[in-house]
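Fold this: AB hydrolase-1 domain-containing protein
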Amino acid sequence: MITSEALSMHTDHLVFNSPQSVRDAPGRWLRMAVKRYSLSQSKQAGSGITLFFAHCVGAHKEQWDPTIQRVLELQQSIDEAYAFDWQTHGDSAVLNRELLDPEKSPGRVYGVSVLEWAEAIAAFASSSAMRGRRIVAVGHSAGAGAMILSTKYLTSPSVYEAIIAIEPTAISHEMFYQEIDIRMSTMEFVVSATLTRRETWRTREDAFAWMRKRIPWSDWDERVLQKLVDDGLEATPEGVRVKGDRRQEALCYPEPQPHFETAALLANKSISSKVHFIWADSEAPLVPLFVQDALVVGAASTSKVQGGHMLVQEKPDELAVAISTILANRIGCISFRPQVSIIT
């Protein structure tokens, strides 16, 4: 008889100093907020898989919570998981607010490139706390690019046992300029929408109700939307507001070079052979099929999840099953747990 098992998920909040940047004054560096997840019955650290998670532009680390919880319910072989906030997003944005102020820090007038985030993730992966770990890096959209780009800063690609890239927005230089007018028009629309997006409400309840009626949030899983309201907003004397500065977020979009570098890295067999792609099974994919086909050459595997580009936000349970299947079938983890629920 199969019995049900209940496990407790523990979380800790960490702050990691990013590598020194030439954009900042000597002795000043950006900080990266990190959330650690572990189970009450986890194995001794280092004997199983350690998962890394990186979010998309405009998101924050807690939006991974429902996916991570489901992966931990499904898999027996996870030691722990870490989710990272881009230095301009979520709790990182709060930690770095003064240093990101262009009036106080002229070097930050153009924000924080995904390359800097990738370097910080690589530094975390190379830290003494991660020595000997079996790390699987998971990223969504720009976060997938960050995980792939982080291999540039590692002493060896073997630091990662695998990379799971969900809807990566990488593209080659040549393909980008084939339809430059369409791409620039799309980018300008997204930047404009970001800069004019509402970011303050009287209460968290008001914010939830307002978002629930509007695209894109109306398409989100309710648990992820609640995470945005609970963890992506901060209290102010007037009510609540988004933690990240929308101007900093908008600066993430017009920079194509990281997309080119990600595509170039994927052309390297030592990298591509470690990458497992998960694409949205959509009639109107954000990443065109011909771009997907070019990126997956030499990949470890490809799979699809029904839904749109925002799979983390819209389909966390289905995405968790896809991630767990890769871990079980492709990376050699122990198979799925029978019937498990996690108490948070």
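The two ends are 26 Å apart (CA to CA). DSSP finds 15 helices and twelve strands in the chain.
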